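tool=predict chain=A
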Amino acid sequence: MTLWNGELPFYPQSWHSANFSVPLLIVILVFLSLAISFLFILPGIRGHSRWFWLVRVLLSLFIGAEIVAVHFSAEWSVGWVSTDTSYKAFSAARIRAHLGLHVGLEGINITLTGTPVQQLNETIDYNEQFNWRPGKNYAEDYAEALEKGLPDPVLYLAEKFTSSSPCGLYQQYRLAGYYASATLWVAFCLWLLSNALLSMPVPLYGGLALLATGTFALFSVVVFASISSVPLCPLRLGSSALTTHYGAAFWVTLATGEDRGDELGAAGMRVRFIPVCDFQFTRSPVPPLGRGRGESPLCSAQRSSHLLGPKRQGLR
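tool=predict ok
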């Protein structure tokens, strides 16, 4: 027999834990490439506006990357527990392990790491993904896990999220992920629209689009929190209980929505209060009789400087 990756064929293969989400890595690399490309052209911008464009573009890219990345993150609701539990079905062997549950918008991720990793002549280091996103069937993933013979703690948590479980976790988190994902995609479309409007001489509408982006990002957080906050059935493994709390993706989305909606949206709304002079710039030799009723001092100064411009040029 020949070796394949250091292992004999036709024998059970060793399990390998996944270290990083591939879609999340692709999103990070795409937006990181855009940021590096902008840094290359940054020296071509002259004056103090260089720093303005640096902050504006990098902040906008961070917001866009965050909105897309949280879709593929399993850190919306997380929980960990260290326990002494059974290892495999129909076996009295027990292990000491660290069990983690990570709930995202499109599925759950369950990790099991032995303490120590080497126990019972095996390497106990599992990272299993169960999806309910469109095109995926959670029941099929669970059936495949049963065929693989995964450890009891992993199968126990995965069974709690099946549609036939009396806990109702599948309907609860799937519904929360569905609505939160939909509102986040709307926020991403509004983010694209705001960047297009801010590149045109319509900053007011760009600010309104930014305000709407932050609003939908906050709405996704509210939707996920309101639906997933229903009391759950207890998750007990051995003598320990696993409890979940909001994870990094939840808090990053909340902070991003507040910053985008309050600061940038307010900055766009300030454009509304810039005084607009309601006169046409003409080179009429007849100066106006003072400033009109209700005209701001800024408009009066602009009128005077415009009309005095030709005279000053003639004196030169």
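The CA atoms of residues 3 and 134 lie 38 Å apart. DSSP finds eight helices and seven strands in the chain.
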